[in-house]
Amino acid sequence: MSPRHPSGLPEDLGKLERPLVIGVLNVTPDSFSDGGKHYELSSALAHGIHLFRGGADIIDVGGESTRPGATPVDAQVELSRVLPVVSALVAADVHVSIDTMKAEVAREAVAAGACLVNDVSGGLFDPAMYPTVAGLDVPYVLMHWRGHGAVMNQLAVYDDVAGEVMSEVNDRLQAAIAGGVDPDSIVIDPGLGFAKEVDDNWQVLHHLNDFVDLGYPVLIGASRKRFLGALLADGAGQSRAFAERDAATDAVSALAAAAGVWGVRVHNVKAAVDSVLVGRAWARGRQ
Ligand code: PMM
After folding, report:
1. pLDDT at residue 36 tops 80
2. Looking at residues 79-97, what average pLDDT do you find?
3. Which of 140, 121, 105, 144 is nearest to 66 (CA)?
4. Are 196 and 157 within 8 A, CB to CB?
5. 218 in ligand 1 pocket by Cβ < 6 Å?
6. 242 and which of 15, 33, 142, 173 could share a cystine (Cβ 3.0–4.6 Å)?
7. Any ligand 1 atom below 6 A from CB of 219
8. Whether the predicted pLDDT of 152 surpasses 90
9. How far is 286 from 264, CA to CA, in rounded Å?
10. Least confident residue range of 66-75, 110-119, 138-147
């Protein structure tokens, strides 16, 4: 069975019978794997179109780096980075999601045509997020989060990481629904790399079926993350370079698709589309 799509998704995407591939477009000077690369509007737009032509179903535009130690930015700075890119991609008929923790940025981006709100804080950062999203009629990605990049490494303390992440996601789900968010519009995400040590991510992935069994569409963002760099470290313990983590990312995408996730968020979309098709066929025993 294909995973259920969240309500509010554009009609053409809602017809897809495979996990969605969401392409990463960070318009920041300091994101962990592509910071600075697409900071200018023209290069952001060109990369967004490149991802779209490569098969991305949605381009996820973010204007604030979430990496450990990153400097927080205010809503005006974030808006000045993302809005021109969102508008230009929407004008080119590309589906766009907005990666933000701020209600104001979410609202403005959706007004400019974004079709999904991706909130890495799961509503913990901005108390206005749930009431705002409740009025927007677009899917809402609620990710597991414990704190901003400046402190998140200190917050990676667990007795049972998969169980605690699941229970914290459940708490956020209840809060979002109580705050007016339509449960059918929610996508959950265990937040790989966010307040998680290297092996914590593998524990979460080992229990991915339990997240899927919660009954909400699940999104996974493993792309090029530190836990993959560590897995692929060389003999001297040197982490694998960002751009050389894509084959491992694709393996995670295939396995996640086989486990029944709704979508994967990746930098290299072309191979990810193949990967989710493999995972889905594997799980179904047919094409
Ligand atoms: N990871 C990053 C940013 N946004 N959103 C969701 N829903 N899930 C993620 O795992 C996630 C995210 C950080 O990665 P990046 O710096 O490559 O964008």
Report:
1. no
2. 98
3. 121
4. no
5. no
6. 33
7. yes
8. no
9. 21
10. 66-75
Taking the C-alpha atoms of residue 120 and residue 252, their distance in angstroms, rounded to an integer, is 20
**Residue 85, CA distances (Å) to 43, 81, 281 in order:** 10, 7, 35
CA of 221 to the centre of ligand 1 (A): 6
Contact between residue 69 and residue 150 where contact means Cβ atoms under 8 Å apart: yes
Q: Ligand 1 centre and the CA of 67: distance in Å?
A: 9
Q: How far is CA 153 from the centre of its chain?
A: 19
Q: Strand (E) positions, 109-228?
A: 116-119, 140-143, 186-189, 219-220
Give the separation between CA 134 and CA 235, rounded to whole angstroms: 50
| Residue among 107, 172, 226, 265 flagged as catalytic | 265
Q: 58-67: b or e for each residue (b if 16 or more CB lie within 10 Å)?
A: bbbbbbbbbb
Q: For residue range 61-77, what is the model confidence (pLDDT) as tens digits?
A: 999 998 877 888 999 99
Q: Residue 272: pLDDT above 90?
A: yes
Q: Report the alpha-carbon distance of residue 185 to residue 198 in Å, rounded.
A: 31
- Whole-angstrom Cα distance, residue 220 to residue 255? 11
Going 163 to 165 to 171 to 177, the CA torsion angle's sign is negative
Residues counted in the chain: 287
Instruction: Report which residue type is found at 8.
Output: G
**Ligand 1 centroid distance, CA of 31 (Å):** 10
Encoded tokens for 142: 């609620």
User: Under 8 Å CB-to-CB from 251, ≥6 apart: which residues?
Assistant: 275
Output DSSP code: residue 185.
G
**Distance (Å, rounded) from C-alpha 272 to C-alpha 22?**
9
